[in-house]
Amino acid sequence: xxxxxxxxxxxxxxxxxxxxxxxxxxxxxxxxxxxxxxxxxxxxxxxxxxxxxxxxxxxxxxxxxxxxxxxxxxxxxxxxxxxxxxxxxxxxxxxxxxxxxxxxxxxxxxxxxxxxxxxxxx
Length: 122
Ligand code: AMP
Hints:
The chain has one domain (8-121): HIT-like (HIT family, subunit A, 2-Layer Sandwich), CATH 3.30.428. 25% of the residues lie in helices and 20% in strands. The chain contains three helices and five strands. It has helices at residues 8-13, 53-59, 62-78, and strands at residues 21-24, 28-32, 40-46, 86-89, 105-109. Strands 1-2-3-5-4 form a five-stranded antiparallel β-sheet, with helices on one face. The relative contact order is 0.21. Adenosine monophosphate binds at residues 8, 17, 19, 31, 33-35, 43, 91, 97-100.
């Protein structure tokens, strides 16, 4: 799938749309999800044109792959989620209901999160 330069996270990265920023470095930007599914729900996105994990891990420079994953860990620490625990999730493609075609990792926390998937989804 070709990267859509006009997707909403591309616009956030370009500064065309505001976000509630949590963290930023050379490799990643993290911001609060506009429709939170947990008391803490933050999205971490890489600074590059990648749709999902497959093209990111295949095509991104090693420095960006490392920097992005480091940023996810840094944000979890910054949000004080390491000790109580948290969940990370990345939707990819139609079956996962990916809505925004720019790679993003969700960080959920702030309460016990229950089982990973509901039984109906098996
Ligand atoms: P996904 O289904 O994994 O693609 O999730 C996309 C997420 O992006 C959803 O949780 C949305 O609530 C969130 N979202 C969409 N637009 C924005 C926005 N402008 N700022 C912050 N989060 C957004």
